[in-house]
Design goal:
Elements: H1 2-36, E1 53-54, E2 87-90, H2 97-105, E3 109-113, H3 119-129, E4 135-139, E5 147-151, E6 154-158, H4 164-173
Length: about 190
């Protein structure tokens, strides 16, 4: 009887060891499968866009007075408590900086142009904005560059709406990681 008991214990140890080995092998195989079949096309981080200037230390206080911004157009800072509609809106007249900056805080990209932009340039820019949430377009006569793309704390100047960096900027910064208030509305704001 003692020998029979020892054989049962040995068999039990063998069975438990085999089961434990199968579980470990299954976990390892599952981990290897997960790593090798991961979607390599999923972006882990966005590549830097050549020419983008980044600005830090921007205030976010709501004010009722005009703000003297250090950049033209402004990239962020204190602003109006009312945002500018930025739901694919195309403005034909300059918009108030303080309201536009509030829209940047919500994750919008503001595209501006000066008088060097041709009507065809403006039409091409409007096509990139119309119907695209968290974007808006307006003239900005005093800007140095022909076309400027601005997101909260980031800015890019280009000479053509066909520059591939325009689409890259929109893809990276519309509701991008720089957004201080992601998901905040871009509708029901100021519409000058």
């Amino acid at each position: 009887m003692h020998e029979e008991d020892l054989r049962r214990k040995r068999r039990r140890k063998i069975v438990y060891s085999a089961v434990a080995g199968l579980i470990v092998a299954g976990v390892l195989a599952g981990g290897i499968w997960a790593v090798t079949t991961a979607d390599d096309s999923a972006p882990t981080s966005k590549a830097p866009i050549a020419g983008v200037q980044t600005f830090g230390m921007l205030g976010r206080t709501h004010v009722q007075t005009p703000v003297a911004y250090p950049q033209t157009p402004p990239v962020g800072g204190d602003h109006s408590p009312v945002w500018l509609n930025c739901n694919g809106d195309v403005y034909t007249e300059p918009v108030p900086n303080e309201n536009a900056v509030h829209s940047l805080e919500h994750g919008a990209v503001w595209i501006t142009y000066n008088d060097q932009a041709s009507p065809a340039d403006v039409a091409a820019l409007a096509a990139k904005v119309q119907g695209k949430p968290y974007t808006f377009l307006s003239p900005y006569p005093t800007e140095q560059g022909k076309i400027t793309l601005t997101a909260w704390g980031n800015q890019l100047v280009v000479d053509s709406p066909n520059d591939p960096r325009v689409d890259a900027f929109l893809a990276q910064y519309v509701q991008g990681p720089q957004t201080p208030e992601p998901g905040a509305p871009c509708t029901d704001g100021l519409r000058p």
